[in-house]
């Protein structure tokens, strides 16, 4: 059989993992693909850099267009990341008649619709299992095994780095910065880890899932995106005391014909399956009108888990499966849903305010919440040590944790604006929604 010839753009964390599988499992993959898979060209940024995997020097180039346009390449595997110039190389590959495999969620969230159209007009496919949830095959689920359903809700932990950091902080009392460093060392984080901890990466993945499952293109600038970078260990402790875990939850659901979307650190009851996903694992809960709620989980980040998804996509192309499923998976939305205005989003909330421990503070805060229609469900204020018997001690600062009844984002934002003007409040002021 003629081999399937692969050109790689990027030989970093994921690219090296892909090469390892392709070289180490050559015979097994050839059997599964029905033909040998051969690496014929690889683009990197810096030819002099030491590599984890050894490839003949003449395969390497610093010019990705050489890979995209190479006449002997059948499939271009884009693993360099980012929007530009990755988009240019993917377009060049498609224009040169090559199928594309990519793990690039930033690119697909922003330009997926455009690139999918370009691929379809040339009867080519883009396979992108690795772009969402790493090794957990959620794209195949949406394209093949949930097709009988109208999806009505997605709740997902899709950033392995954030979930790893929250887990390290909560279970091992690891300081935040140390946990971020560890996630980078383990190959979970993006080249710029700010994209993981500020919620952007999870929001981009939610954008891709929303396009596929709910037929509506959304980008992170259109909905609430917050990351775990403001959350402190004490928040995880208070949430626990109240019966909840804190997770970076990406959520999309249809409410009264509108699409409610957000990606935020969220309190989730401990007993719910998604609250129990720890470390770099991801979970996606899909609600289908026929099947009900279903949960899919697996390693969401890291070299070999992500490489596993990339190589499976390559095999799907070798066999011809991806060419069948891609056009149907990415059909043009016929009836995109309008987005629910964020002020109307209705949830319960966790508030942590650091306040001066003196008379009337509670009254000032509850007054503001009440005037804005925010009803309090419970309050935690642990007793602070009595100030020493010294003349004119300043007021001590104590955390005040408030759980609200269901209210709207608009009411909570209005209350927060008023709270910000109180002199008795200190930084930080933490607000997290509760996923009921
Ligand atoms: P990475 O380790 O930073 O690797 C990027 C590779 O691309 C490097 O080999 C780099 O070359 C090459 N590159 C960058 N810019 C280039 C340019 N202009 N021309 C030629 N080569 C260029 O990144 P990664 O973690 O493997 O991630 C790759 C993609 O997979 C990203 O889209 C990421 O979002 C996605 N992803 C990553 C994971 C994960 O767990 N890491 C999981 C799922 C998806 P040099 O080596 O010479 O610098
Ligand atoms: N940085 C990403 C994460 C990699 O931590 O989830 C997987 O897409």
Your description of this structure?
The chain has 436 residues and is an alpha/beta fold. The chain contains 15 helices and 17 strands. It has helices at 13-24, 26-33, 64-69, 86-95, 105-121, 138-145, 160-172, 176-185, 194-197, 200-214, 233-242, 303-319, 321-329, 361-371, 409-419; strands spanning 4-9, 37-43, 60-61, 75-78, 99-102, 126-127, 151-157, 224-225, 244-255, 258-269, 281-288, 292-299, 346-356, 376-380, 397-404, 407-408, 425-435. Strands 7, 8, 9, 10, 11, 12, 13, 14, 15, 16 and 17 form an 11-stranded mixed sheet that branches. The protein has a 6-stranded parallel sheet with strand order 3-2-1-4-5-6, with helices on both faces. Strand 9 (244-255) and strand 10 form a beta hairpin. The N and C termini lie far apart (54 Å). L-homoserine is lined by residues 134, 159-161, 188-190, 196, 201, 300-301.
């Amino acid at each position: 059989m003629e081999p399937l010839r692969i050109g790689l753009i990027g030989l970093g964390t994921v690219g090296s993992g892909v090469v390892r599988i392709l070289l180490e499992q050559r015979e097994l993959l050839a059997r599964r693909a029905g033909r040998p898979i051969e690496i014929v060209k690889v683009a990197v940024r810096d030819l002099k850099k030491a590599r984890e995997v050894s490839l003949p020097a003449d395969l390497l180039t610093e010019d990705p267009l050489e890979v995209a346009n190479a006449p002997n390449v059948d499939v271009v595997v884009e693993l360099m990341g980012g929007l530009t110039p990755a988009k240019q190389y993917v377009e060049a590959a498609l224009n040169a008649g090559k199928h594309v495999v990519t793990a690039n969620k930033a690119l697909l969230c922003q330009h997926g619709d455009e690139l999918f159209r370009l691929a379809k007009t040339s009867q080519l496919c883009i396979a992108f299992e690795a772009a969402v949830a790493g090794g957990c095959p959620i794209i195949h689920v949406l394209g093949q095994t949930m097709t009988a359903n109208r999806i009505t809700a997605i709740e997902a932990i899709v950033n392995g780095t954030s979930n790893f950091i929250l887990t390290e902080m909560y279970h091992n009392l690891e300081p935040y910065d140390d946990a971020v460093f560890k996630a980078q060392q383990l190959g979970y984080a993006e080249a710029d880890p700010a994209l993981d901890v500020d919620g952007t990466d999870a929001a981009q993945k939610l954008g891709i899932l929303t396009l596929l499952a709910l037929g509506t293109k959304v980008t992170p600038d259109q909905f609430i995106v917050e990351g775990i970078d403001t959350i402190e260990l004490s928040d995880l402790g208070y949430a626990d005391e109240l019966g909840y875990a804190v997770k970076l939850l990406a959520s999309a659901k249809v409410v009264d014909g509108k699409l409610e979307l957000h990606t935020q650190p969220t309190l989730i009851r401990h007993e719910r399956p998604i609250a129990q996903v720890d470390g770099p694992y991801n979970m996606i809960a899909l609600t289908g009108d026929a099947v009900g709620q279903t949960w899919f989980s697996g390693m969401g980040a890291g070299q070999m888990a992500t490489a596993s998804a990339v190589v499976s996509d390559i095999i799907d192309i070798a066999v011809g499966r991806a060419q069948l499923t891609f056009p149907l998976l990415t059909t043009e939305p016929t009836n995109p849903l309008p987005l629910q205005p964020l002020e109307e989003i209705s949830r319960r909330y966790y508030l942590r305010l650091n306040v001066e421990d003196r008379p009337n503070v509670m009254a000032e805060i509850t007054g503001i919440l009440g005037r804005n229609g925010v009803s309090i469900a419970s309050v935690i204020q642990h007793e602070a040590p009595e100030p020493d018997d010294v003349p004119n001690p300043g007021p001590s600062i104590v955390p005040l944790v408030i759980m609200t009844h269901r209210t709207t984002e608009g009411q909570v934002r209005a209350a927060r604006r008023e709270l910000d003007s109180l002199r008795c409040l200190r930084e930080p002021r933490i607000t997290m929604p509760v996923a009921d």
